[in-house]
Amino acid sequence: MRAEGKGDLLNRVSIGRISEVIVEQVRLLIRQGQLSAGDRLPSERELCERFGVSRVTVREALRVLEANGLVEIRVGARGGAFVTAPSSRLVGEGIADLITLASLTAVEVTESRMVFELGIVPLVCERATQEDIDALYEICDRSKKALQGDDYPLELSAEWHARYAQAAHNRAISMLVESLHGPLLMSLERAREVSPMHGRRGVNEHRALVDAIAARDATAAAAQMATHLKRTAERLAKAPRGTSA
Amino acid sequence: MRAEGKGDLLNRVSIGRISEVIVEQVRLLIRQGQLSAGDRLPSERELCERFGVSRVTVREALRVLEANGLVEIRVGARGGAFVTAPSSRLVGEGIADLITLASLTAVEVTESRMVFELGIVPLVCERATQEDIDALYEICDRSKKALQGDDYPLELSAEWHARYAQAAHNRAISMLVESLHGPLLMSLERAREVSPMHGRRGVNEHRALVDAIAARDATAAAAQMATHLKRTAERLAKAPRGTSA
DNA sequence: TCCGTCTATTGGTTAGTCCATTAGACCACA
DNA sequence: TGTGGTCTAATGGACTAACCAATAGACGGA
């Protein structure tokens, strides 16, 4: 649009928002490890002096850092901004926002879950420790017990899938799956609307999957997982659309 | 730790931050579609009156909404807060933060990419349109051309992988892959440090992959993709560690 | 027609003030 | 001895009033 023949000889002079500069500075310190989880930043009033800006500006910077999940702010004496441990919670919220805003269908979300969870079957079968397997069985047991009451083990199913991903022994994969946790719960919620009696069968499938993993039988595990997820996908496809709110 | 025999009979009374209430209200409006991309929120001064709070409070709410990628703020006359189209950029930044903060290794990131991109091979082979295939070839052509100059087609490789994911025709998958775009670029950057002459071979592999997709040969495509990604992973494994600035 | 200027709108920043919450010190009473 | 109030200082939360900076659009002259 604009004539810019000389390339970027002329660079932007705008320095943007001051609060943004502060955000970047703190973010850098955290990324570089000079500030690590649990550390406390100076108080707002002290930060004002350090940066030579007003308190409002510092506070806006802290709001952004907080929204990004980098710090947690506590009030009262000995309060202040504390660097938080890295968490997948906020990424999950971001993904959840993305999904609702882009009005993705439950079918699309389920399919992506399917790709991921099916893809890690070989890794899990290869790397799962006895501890992993025990933990998965334990979740199955709890689910069965919960089924005898009125509680449908919705969160338990999510927990099972998260723990399953953890057995791949790759933190990047665990975090991604955990990030999908929120959206996953949403789609499970949806599934429950459609077929409230799904619980028992799902739990049995989970258990069969653990059996296959324990036997290091990747083929059987993959087949089982495919069935499990496909059934969910089919139920979702029959779900009523546009019933949000 | 605390004695809480009676469950949550005693619930928290804290109403939290005012700005947070505003954030939630606006977020809800956006989620429900009463505000959609491109819409302009009232000016800060008008929002003050509407909510009955001071301008500082409104501004803090806007900072959070902006950090969450829900609105974009423009200054000057006719400026204000505009609802943004849903974008995967911020989720990508979140994932990038997560990766650096949790100090995940490049190997772990690459492995998760591998799972995902390998997993969608069947979907892509089944669903890719002629348009998709043409676009992928076109990126290969551009990469080859760029290789003849000094430009190593780093971004082009990322573009290829993003376009490839798009050919799965599932928006959830495209968005996730795009979210991994930032981290992906980082790992590619890393790969370049190790073997600067990787370019030509990578481009050839991309082209062979498109050939397989065009032939709807999922088996060949998967094998090709596995080779391509595995080679990257191996190079990364040999990469020098802990050289982050 | 085109270019400069003026103006109103709107976000960015500051300073100063007060309130609410909290941890910790201290003290009185049982 | 210890249990529960009270006081105090530190700290974030919110408000007011004012000014600065960027910008779009109107207006007017060459």
In short:
The structure is a homodimer of 245-residue chains. Chain A is mostly helical and 245 residues long. Chain A is 65% helix and 3% strand.
How are the strands ordered across the major sheet of chain A? 1-2
Order of helices and strands of chain A: HHHEEHHHHHHHHH
Q: Count of DSSP E strands of chain A?
A: 2
Uncertain runs of chain A: 1-13, 241-245
The number of helical runs of chain A is 12
> Biggest sheet of chain A, open or closed, and with what strands and sense?
2 strands, antiparallel
Q: What does this protein structure show overall?
A:
The structure is a homodimer of 245-residue chains. The first copy, chain A, has 245 residues and is mostly helical. In chain A, 65% of the residues lie in helices and 3% in strands. Chain A has 12 helices and 2 strands; from the N terminus they run αααββααααααααα. In chain A, strands 1-2 form a two-stranded antiparallel ribbon. In chain A, a hairpin with a 5-residue loop joins strand 1 and strand 2 (80-83). Residues 1-13 and 241-245 of chain A have low confidence and may be disordered. Chain A binds a DNA duplex (30 and 30 nucleotides) through helix 3.
List the helices and strands and how they pair.
2 copies of one chain form a homodimer.
Chain A: H1 18-31, H2 44-51, H3 55-67, E1 71-74, E2 80-83, H4 89-101, H5 106-119, H6 121-127, H7 130-148, H8 154-166, H9 171-179, H10 181-194, H11 199-214, H12 218-237
Antiparallel strand pairs in A: 1-2
Helix pairs in contact in A: 1-3, 2-3, 5-10, 5-12, 6-12, 7-8, 7-11, 8-9, 8-10, 11-12
Chain A binds a DNA duplex (30 and 30 nucleotides) through helix 3.
